[in-house]
Amino acid sequence: MRKIDNLVIHCTATVQTAKVESIQRYWRDTLKWRSSGYHVIIEANGNIVRLAEDSAVCNGVAGHNSNSLHVSYIGGIDAKGKGLDNRTPQQKVALWQVIKAWKQKYPNAKVLGHRDFPSVKKECPSFDAGKWWESLQN
Ligand SMILES: [Zn+2]
User: Fold this and answer.
1) Catalytic site residue from 26, 32, 124, 131
2) Domain annotation for the chain: domains and CATH numbers
3) Is 124 labeled as catalytic in the residue annotation?
4) Is-cis flag, bond preceding 125, omega within 30?
């Protein structure tokens, strides 16, 4: 089993109605990625879609993927494309479930957002992931 140090939260930076298949098509055809961007995607209705096994290395954060797991909610931008935490209540619950399950498997891994890595210029996931997770811990 590979060593997991980071549980990374993302947003897709798309409309909330974006389809998982179209996001995957973008990775494959436009970005020419051979692997998935995330391990798990969460749809607006809270549906959890598994895209890759934990053992697979995904393309979530350039240079930090070998020891990371990635989960993304669909959404995260406003109509002008600016970062906005528009997670639905269902997505918040699902996100908590995914991170909680990973934390049980990888108790020493840190919960953080894409933007928390050094020299990342994105707003992804459009909220403070570490603070959000901490707020659920009591
Ligand atoms: Zn991201």
Assistant:
1) 124
2) 6-133 (3.40.80.10)
3) yes
4) yes
